[in-house]
Design a protein that fits this description.
- By secondary structure, the protein is of the alpha/beta class.
- The protein has 12 helices and 17 strands.
- The strands form 3 sheets. It has a 9-stranded mixed sheet, with helices on both faces. Strands 12, 13, 14, 15, 16 and 17 form a 6-stranded mixed sheet that branches. A two-stranded antiparallel ribbon has the order 8-9.
- It binds zinc ion (ZN) (2 copies).
- The site of one zinc ion has 9 residues, from loops.
């Protein structure tokens, strides 16, 4: 995590009081609560810029920005925090710096890596909210899962050039709360599958169709989302999981209360799971770590490719690695040069098999969980 703030550079307290003087005239505005708030914003694109700008103007205590991408010229029509000379810089870094320029008292940190690799569930537990400002279903699904485990409130957005969609999932407060995936239509999963072949192997030449957005839809999403966060304890605010659709042409809007679906994967995440951080030890050590129940069933955060076996020539080999490290070329048999490999992919494994397959190497997953005596245990791997 990079830090661009230093205590010495903070302006004196008196200035702060003047700065927030207008907020203090609003009966429901609790500046101290805003100052105490710790939030993470994932995605510093069009919507992320607007969310960050608002959070900084409001005087949010700590803002952590995550985005792996760099600024391109075409981003400048929708990104209030970026200047032309920022082109080529990391979005997260430029955005964090701009937030601090808005209000030097706002403590800003940033990360330029992949969200799945950089966001630790253990760290997320200390945040009040996660703002999901990404532009694809897959990243939203991943953030939804991380927020569910960490019990952090999720504020989600999706925009195009006309429509604004914002959602609130108060996971920290509402036990029976719907999650992002509870009401996700099959078309979303179909869209995700377009990127993969044979189920979970990335297509080599897949170019994602970009959805055009404008500063108008981005700023609406950013302001309504921050308003929801700001008013999260207001008795007049929407309760539970809620979605708002707004049409910037007809000005029609709809608010939908999202209901929890019992068959959704989120039902398997206990509200009171026990969290442990573990050194990423070799798989064989888990038997010692977890006791000697070889039949213990572990659910993994990531899918693992275990073996490939050629249907044509019969050649078989063990892979034992994270599916994210491979693409569709894994179907090609190295011996007979035909695309005949059957690939074994698993994300549920017994302790026995895990110990055997990863006897001397680390298990390449982000976290794993299992249930013992009606207690759910979550193990997050340390780097
Ligand atoms: Zn769900
Ligand atoms: Zn073969």
């Amino acid at each position: 995590m990079k830090d661009i703030d230093t205590a010495e550079e903070r302006p004196p307290g008196a200035l702060k009081e003047q700065r927030y003087q207008r907020h203090s005239l609003i009966d429901w505005f609790d500046q101290e609560q805003v100052k105490r708030a710790r939030v993470v914003v994932v995605g510093a694109g069009a919507t992320g810029n607007e969310v960050l700008k608002n959070l900084a103007l409001l005087g949010t205590g700590h803002i952590h920005v995550i985005d792996f991408d760099r600024i391109e010229t075409h981003n400048l029509t929708r990104s209030v925090l970026f200047k032309e000379e920022d082109t080529g810089r990391f979005k997260a870094e430029a955005a964090a710096e701009a937030c601090r320029a808005i209000d030097p008292k706002v403590y800003t940190t940033f990360e330029t890596g992949d969200l799945w690799e950089t966001l630790r569930i253990g760290d997320m537990k200390s945040y009040d909210a996660l703002f999901c400002c990404v532009d694809n279903y897959e990243a939203r699904i991943r953030l939804n899962e991380l927020c569910l485990w960490a019990r952090v409130d999720l504020y989600n957005t999706a925009i195009d050039s006309r429509y604004v969609c914002i959602e609130q999932y108060p996971f920290s407060r509402d036990r029976g709360c719907a999650c992002y995936q509870c009401n996700l239509p099959p078309s979303a999963y179909a869209k995700i599958r377009e990127r993969y072949s044979c189920g979970w192997l990335r297509k080599k030449a897949y170019e994602e169709k970009k959805i055009p957005t404008t500063a108008i839809t981005a700023s609406l999403a950013g302001s309504i989302l921050c308003s929801l966060f700001l008013q999260r304890n207001h008795p007049g605010g929407p309760q539970g999981a809620v979605r708002l659709y707004f049409d910037t042409i007809s000005l029609n809007s709809t608010v939908t209360h999202l209901s929890h679906q019992e068959e959704c994967f989120c039902s398997s995440i206990f509200h009171d799971s026990h969290y442990f951080k573990v050194k990423n030890v070799p798989g064989a050590d888990y038997a010692r770590l977890l006791g000697s129940e070889e039949s213990l069933v572990l659910s993994l955060s990531d899918k693992l490719v275990l073996d490939v076996t050629c249907r044509n020539c019969g050649l078989s080999r063990a892979i034992d690695d994270n599916v994210r490290r491979f693409d569709e070329s894994l179907a090609l048999c190295g011996a007979c040069r035909t695309h005949s490999n059957d690939i074994t992919i698993k994300d549920i494994i017994t302790l026995d098999e895990l110990s055997m397959r990863f006897s001397r190497k680390a298990v390449p997953v982000k976290f794993m969980h299992f249930t013992r005596d009606d207690t759910q245990i979550l193990l997050e791997m340390e780097e």
